[in-house]
Amino acid sequence: MLDSQLIIETAKRLEERVAERFPEAGLRGVAGELVSLSRDLAKAAKDLEAPIWWLRGVIVAAFIAGVAMFLLVGTILPLDRISGADDAVQSMQGIEATQHGHPGGARLPGAIRTEERINRKKVFRQLHGLRSLIHVIDMHQLTKDPAALSADFKPTPHSPARMTNAADLARYLDYCSEMLSITGKIAALFAQSVNDDVVIHGVNDIENLSSNLSRKIWQKITLIEDRQ
Question: What is the mean pLDDT of residues 28-42?
Fold first, then answer.
């Protein structure tokens, strides 16, 4: 089982490493944002483990009300005294049909699923912020091109600033890859807290996105290592 506190501590150590090696880089701010987001999302995932008590109270109350209505009509007010036997049978069938439309009747499972839908909305709201951060990390590594290490590389007037030190470039890219890995672990906290196929699918999408981008970064790192 993933430990949210360890994930937060890992993100914090990574922020410190980035600050020490690249104090002026924008990546330092992204690392700080990752720490803040990891704390917020870890708490949000933990909160989802607790039941929504007010909703469950409403469901139980509706169920009790439905049962009470059935007992009231069926026992306290016997139908066969109000009408004939045939009418009583028809009336009971009508009551049963009413129960199917009552929140305490056949709709009870649907009411219970309401809690799942509420939790899904909460999860996907949090995953949206995590997905945005993943794309920010990807933007920071886009211009870190191993081709800039070549003696034949000629930048244009509009070329972004390039790293020309192979060790620094490899370390910068490695930090980006680590950040992406941490985002995947943060997303997994929600799958751990909410046992829901839709949530698990959404978490898998985040993990696949971070893994695919990390794989591209490691292709760059491999090119750098081949040049040395």
Answer: 96
